[in-house]
Design a protein that fits this description.
Elements: H1 2-32, E1 45-48, E2 52-54, E3 58-64, E4 70-76, E5 88-90, E6 95-101, E7 109-117, E8 123-130, E9 140-150, E10 157-166, E11 172-184, E12 190-201, E13 206-215, E14 223-235, E15 242-250, E16 258-266, E17 273-284, E18 290-298, E19 307-312, E20 326-336
Parallel strand pairs: 2-8
Antiparallel strand pairs: 1-3, 3-6, 4-5, 4-7, 7-8, 9-10, 10-13, 11-12, 11-14, 15-16, 16-19, 17-18, 17-20
């Protein structure tokens, strides 16, 4: 009897203990339920985020969030700098929106937009900052222009362009200059891009950059967008060879179009041999407007005081002879010092 009573009491105790666990678990679930004390609101969601934003131009970001929530936005650029003036805004009809103008000096490359609303978890997403008309640089674009010619066969076209870059420093040479040229239609859409690298531009001098690009379409190019970046600056040592007898030559096969810009290259360095040279040409019309450009090479070794014929023939085929009045040339030389 005693054993039976003890067994029943033990079972009752188990039931009570089990019920105690149930009660504790229920309390725990209640504390964890949404809207409980200390709970965070649901995170916002991006409704609009640009994939690309441009230096010096407007940008905007929109998120979806609970009504009457106070939302904050932080934008961090590629170099770690923060965009100022964004602040916090209250949602209207479940949306929060920010608009701002990117600085002309906004670092190009990946940027991060981060948003939180009313203590919610922060959400982040990347976008890319793209250079505007001209990246900040000591170099100045003093002249530019182009000519466009439809392909004889197919639906493409060729653009010959010329750009003059000025180094305003009287003591420093620009080193390893990268130039990006975008061909834009009248709506600002990039039709094609050409890139060039200039080893150096001498202090207080103008570099004449010529080149060309082929477009898969015949849409008219309305303007050029120039982006110039300089890796470094060094004390002035740059010496450019001389040239003379420069003249514009029509194409042997198409007399109405420019074939080359020819002349004589002179090594006027006092002691070093000119082992090679790349020539860059900008072509002007009679009014002084840039109408195109091209490049050429000389590989003959020229001791001091000697000269060689040159012909810059690449990239000029889109320039009409009727528009080609004169040309300006810049040279990137390679020298070999005596005994080296």
């Amino acid at each position: 009897m005693v054993g039976e009573a003890g067994r029943r009491l033990g079972e009752a105790g188990c039931v009570i203990k089990a019920r105690g666990i149930s009660v504790v678990a229920a309390v725990g679930l209640a504390l964890a339920a949404p809207g409980g004390a200390g709970a965070k609101s649901a995170p916002p969601r991006f409704a609009f985020l640009p994939s690309h934003a441009y230096q010096g131009k407007a940008a905007s970001i929109t998120v979806l969030a609970p009504a009457r929530a106070q939302c904050s936005l932080a934008v961090t650029y590629a170099n770690g700098a923060k965009q100022y003036g964004l602040g916090s805004v209250a949602t209207a009809i479940g949306r929060a929106q920010w608009s701002w103008s990117l600085p002309l000096t906004a670092p190009v490359g990946p940027a991060v937009a981060s948003v939180s609303c009313g203590g919610s978890a922060r959400i982040s997403r990347r976008f890319t900052v793209v250079g505007g008309t001209v990246l900040p640089s000591k170099l100045r674009v003093v002249a530019q222009g182009f000519s466009q010619r439809p392909d004889a066969f197919g639906g493409g076209s060729t653009v010959s362009y010329g750009v003059q870059l000025r180094d305003p420093s009287s003591t420093k040479d620009a080193q390893r200059v990268t130039v990006l040229v975008n061909f834009l239609d009248d709506s600002g859409t990039v039709l094609q891009t050409a890139t060039s690298t200039i080893s150096q531009i001498g202090a207080s001098s103008t570099f004449n950059l010529g080149g060309s690009g082929h477009l898969p379409v015949q849409t008219a190019v309305a303007r050029l967008e120039i982006v110039a970046q300089t890796d470094s600056w060094a004390a002035h040592t740059f010496h450019q060879p001389a040239f003379e007898n420069v003249h514009i030559v029509p194409s042997s096969f198409e007399l109405a179009w420019v074939g080359s810009v020819d002349g004589d290259l002179i090594n006027d360095h006092p002691i070093s041999t000119l082992t090679s040279a790349q020539l860059s040409v900008v072509v002007f019309d009679s009014a002084g407007h840039v109408v195109g450009g091209g490049i050429g090479y000389v590989s003959s070794a020229l001791p001091p005081g000697t000269r060689s014929f040159f012909s810059a023939a690449q990239g000029l085929s889109a320039v009409p002879m009727t528009q080609a009045s004169n040309a300006a040339i810049s040279i990137e030389p390679t020298y070999q010092a005596p005994g080296s």
